[in-house]
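Q: Given only this backbone (211 positions), what sequence would you predict?
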């Protein structure tokens, strides 16, 4: 009788150990922990991903406000280029953005930067070199390509920089003058502005508003 009881206890102990070890080493699905970041595959060709990447900035609230003002009015003016109110608001936004640059590098006002200004230039490039800034410049170039701006639309303190950012030589106060070679008479102009020379060469965007 004692032997039977012994074997019964031994069998029960073995069964308990067997199922206990099985439970211990069984693979359990992990429950999500909100403290642990999740990862997923990113499709770099996804338009939404590209938009997110191009909207990244340095996180500075003041500069972000300036960026979005230019970007928003550039887009609106690109869609409605003959709207004088939008044009005035875009010019104001572009001037404010350019002046933020100039506050870091004053020599940008007159495009007279030299070797001594290299550190300030690097600082400005870092401050205004985010993907959002690059997206902003592309928007500026698109709206300026419509030919709706002319020399004098932007004040002298910002015109140089805006012309460079927007790739628009027509608004550059320091536009190159090309002297005509050959005999000069009363009917022959002595010089052409950058804008008129480009127009003759067919390289100037036509004003979509007919001005």
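A: Predicted residues:
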């Amino acid at each position: 009788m004692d032997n039977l009881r012994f074997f019964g206890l031994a069998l029960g102990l073995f069964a308990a150990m067997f199922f206990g070890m099985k439970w211990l080493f069984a693979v359990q699905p992990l429950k999500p922990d909100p403290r642990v970041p999740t990862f997923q595959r990113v499709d770099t060709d996804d338009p939404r991903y590209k938009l997110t990447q191009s909207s990244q900035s340095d996180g500075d609230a003041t500069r972000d406000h300036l960026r979005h003002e230019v970007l928003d009015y550039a887009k609106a003016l690109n869609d409605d280029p003959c709207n004088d109110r939008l044009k005035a608001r875009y010019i104001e936004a572009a001037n404010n953005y350019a002046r933020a640059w100039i506050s870091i590098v004053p020599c940008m006002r007159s495009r007279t930067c030299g070797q001594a200004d290299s550190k300030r230039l690097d600082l400005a490039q870092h401050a205004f070199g985010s993907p959002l800034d690059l997206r902003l410049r592309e928007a500026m170039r698109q709206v300026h390509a419509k030919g709706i701006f002319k020399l004098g639309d932007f004040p002298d303190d910002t015109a140089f920089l805006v012309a460079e950012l927007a790739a628009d030589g027509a608004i550059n106060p320091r536009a190159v003058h090309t002297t005509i070679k050959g005999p000069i008479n009363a009917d022959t102009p002595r010089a052409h502005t950058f804008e008129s020379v480009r127009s003759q060469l067919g390289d100037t965007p036509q004003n979509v508003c007919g001005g």
